[in-house]
Design goal:
The complex is a heterodimer.
Chain A lengths: L6 H5 L2 H27 L7 H27 L5 H6 L10 H4 L15 H23 L4 H11 L2 H16 L3 H17 L10 H6 L7 H13 L23 H10 L1 H5 L6
Chain B lengths: L18 H12 L12 H26 L8 H29 L6 H10 L15 H20 L7 H29 L3 H20 L6 H4 L4 H6 L7 H18 L10 E3 L4 E3 L5 H11 L3 H14 L1 H7 L8
Helix pairs in contact in B: 2-3, 3-6, 5-6, 5-7, 5-10
The chains are: A mainly alpha, B mainly alpha.
Chain lengths: 271, 329
Amino acid sequence: MTSIDTVEALLENNEALQAAKTFLFQLADDDYITSFRGSEWLGLAPHIEEDVAFSSITQNTMGHAVLVYQTLEALGEAEADKLAHARPAGERLSSVYLEKPNGPGTYLDEPHYDWALAVIRLYLYETWKKIRLQTAARGSIRPVAAAAEKILMEQPYHLAHWKMWAVQLLDSTPEAKERLEERIAEAWREAGDMISFGGHGQTFLENGVTADSEEALQLRWLEEVRSVLPAPAELPLKEAGDGRRKEHGSDLDQALKTCSEVFTSDREAVW
Amino acid sequence: MYNFIEHVNGSEPEAVEDEAKYAQFMERIENGEKIEADDWMPEEYRQTLIKLISMHGISEIMGALPEKEWVPKAPTLYRKLGIMAKVQDEMGHGQLLLRVAEDLMAPYGRSREDLMMDLLSGDLKFHNVFHMETRTWADAGVIGWLVDGAAIISQTNMLDASYGPYQRALQRICAEEVFHAQHGEAIVMALAEGTPEQKAMLQEAVDRWWPSLLMFFGPGSAETTGSSKQEVTTKYKIRKSSNEELRQAFLDKYLPRVFSLGLTIPDDTLRYDEEKEQWEYEQPDWNEFKQIIKNNGPRSAERLRLRELAYENNRWVRRALSNEPVVQA
């Protein structure tokens, strides 16, 4: 496959451009909602050291979303701030599993957040994120590969962090193990959209956005997470919806309302 | 950040335990030497440091909560990144300081767990400004610009503090606080140059924060609230200036900036006395201040509730990480 080395060249190849943009929107929207859910945790983590680490990861993750939205802006989409703040839920490609609230309550009022959900969800997500960044980095579309390479410079530390938590808690008290296992079972009912390309896998592969097939990547993910977690041998289901196909629940509406509250109070103002 | 330390139950400093050691210790203080965690130190010094540093540390942690309210709502991606970086720094400062406090408390067999319990029980106070509500995005700007600005004035005054571990932590904290003040100033500048609504939002925030900013440095003298311990901190060269000197330094630095942005201060009596070379201002309500730091401020209960929830909901995690069984409350 001939490689596409520049933004200009990509802009001239409509099929590759659409494929690249879809891949990037999936990535940026996932990171944006993940960073939002992470920011809700601030001050509520199990200990101060974890608050420091988690908020650092959350900040990096927002940085990744910014980088990818900016890449989309360079590819002819609206400016990054509008992509983040002005797109309605029905246009977003984030995974519904990542949109799920951290627990009962809101971040301002009675947040009964569950650390087991945080650990399992972020371990599963960061594992998938690594795999999809790696395949993009080996793909033949340079502007996409460059963004992936840049994110991969810090993302492995995020994955290592959540892996450490998962391993440590699974190897501790029966109570902790049980809590994690419940969240694993939940993930296998709901996280199916997170590890999917939403029907675009073949197009991604054919246009060199990814270097591997969707099926191969999913199996790689399954093998890796099963080496750490006591998880089923089959891929997760999509019982909560399919964000890759723009099917979202009210959780995303709520989240976006919060994230865009000040922005939408005056869209023309300089903030 | 904070120089207002209460006596616990009005207790007086204990009698000096060993006069020879005390004399030697004071000689080191006078010579500008740094005292380290394992060095001999008088009880009064140790207890003053524990109160000062544990309160400073816990205030950094509680201080992340008001701004946290605006982290997801930050109106642009860069503002989101900026405020995320800031609250992360605050948590980091809290962690650094609690580590320093823990070493000081070790001889009493007390740990960070005890500090957290003291916070929840109301025995450990946190800074008055972090009991206040944040109503609009302008609060994020004013907190960064003026509250952190006040913190810089107060903390740089202790950059040469006699206790080495605290002095070294402050070097890093002050360096980061400068970024925070710039972050806040950038938010404020955008609002000050913005739409009429943005300007009004900013002025409303400044009006609302003004009494808290005056209170920030603590009362001018012990008579005001009957419990200032500022003289002890200067005796041991933990800090240099009095509460009022710090407040005047803050007014000197920030009032010209406030006025140059076209903002006003809600105090008709505010003026600079050329003869005395100091600002004259209306005293904030120090009784209200006492109420605020007794956890009766506008948002005290809600902020403490967040820490309480974190403590309760993560009990199973602490149990999982601990080698010993954690006692059920």
